[in-house]
Design a protein that fits this description.
Layout: H1 32-39, H2 43-46
Length: 59
């Protein structure tokens, strides 16, 4: 991160936000990108990523 190789964010190794930069996640929080990156799966392999295969589409 210090080199700016991950997006445009740069932070020196000793200059992070620590706990001040942490936000508590609400109950039911879902981030499909995190599951995709951590699991190393393709979108077609993982389906929706939600328990039970829900897509969460709005009507």
């Amino acid at each position: 991160i210090a080199d700016g190789t991950f997006g445009v964010t740069r932070r020196p190794a000793d200059g992070g936000r620590g706990l001040d930069g942490v936000v508590e996640r609400a109950e039911g929080y879902f981030n499909p990108a995190a599951q995709f990156l951590e699991g190393g799966q393709t979108a077609s392999q993982r389906g929706s990523g939600r328990p039970g295969g829900e897509r969460g589409d709005r009507a």
